[in-house]
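Issue: copy button drops trailing tokens. Both records pasted manually instead:
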Amino acid sequence: MSTVTPRGWVGSVLRWAWLIAVGAVVAFPVYVTVVSAVLPSGDVMAGRLVPAPGRLTLGNLRDALDTVPLARQYLMSVAVTLVQAGAQLLTATIAAYALVFTRWRGRRLAFTAVLATLAIPNESLVIPNFELVTSLGLRDTLLGIVVPYLAAGYAVFLLRQAFADIPTEVMEAARLDGCDDIRALVRIVLPMCWPQLITAGLWSALSAWNGFFWPLLITDSPQRRTVQVGLSQLVTGESTSPAVIYAGTLLVLLPTLLLVVFGQRLLARGLASRITA
């Protein structure tokens, strides 16, 4: 029978104490947002963090939806997220397959170029992207928001490393069975790399949902802006109460929380998978 030494017991206690402390620090702003979103404005101004059941209200959520067109902007954000994440996942899958399983001159140079894009700040591309989208007549449209982000270097890198982990014998056997590239990709590669695919998809979805500066720049009408831009308008409004701002923040925060909560195991598995050069 194994016994726990005093040193091991103390180490376990310290680790749990550290995890609890870090969890409390991370969860506290979320708790404040949730509580303040369902309290009257006077209670929020008084700094009450322990709500009484009889004081809870949903009026702040209704006021947030009425102050700015958050409902319409919510739909716009969902559309942007679906289109942008889907496009990035599709382009990354095709590019990663080409970088790993096909032989062509300049393949290493192309992968180096993909890695180089990770070092380019998005702010440096704003003016060229703005001129391109404007020249295409896509300003203040859904396509105008997503066109510059139909592909992402990080998603290509992540899937390329995942595809490189597949044994060459598996692909050689597929070739002998008569599989072409599309069949090999759909039936062999994708089922073997689904954790990394989901990780790339969640990363792309979170990036699209949290986008702020580019949707603000390329859209003009409030109905065609994303919910992040709408939240900023809610914050800067002179007549908006703190409770209504917290309610709007909760509406914006909820989808990302759900993605992280339900996809945390897949995210951890995809990011912790073995990476080979």
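Record 2 (pasted manually too):
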Amino acid sequence: MSQFKDRIFRSVRANLNDVLDRIREFESQGGFETLFDEERSRLGDGHTGGTDPVPPRGGKKGIRDYYANLEVPYGSDIDTVKASYLKLMRRYHPDRYTNDPEMEALATELSQEISQAYTAVKSWLKNGGY
């Protein structure tokens, strides 16, 4: 029985080392940033909707940033986006933090970002651009 366990252990270790080698190779070739650049170039040329759904580096926010602000996965439907928006607005509404001025200011800022994100995503889903 111990020989069987040893063979399994060696096999798992070999597979793990193979996976680690592939990860190191992937990272040495640019990693996920390279994949994101390829997706940016692909979506930037052929998509419809007027504006780039993937934010350019150092540029204005893209639609994916707004989805992240709303804490929903990219491509969610309007009902999911609306439910998340309402949940976040209840959580971060400035009136909930009237006793603490710092938290009230932070909640005001967050609620404005959430509202802007909801408006952009809603427009994106309805009209194909924001």
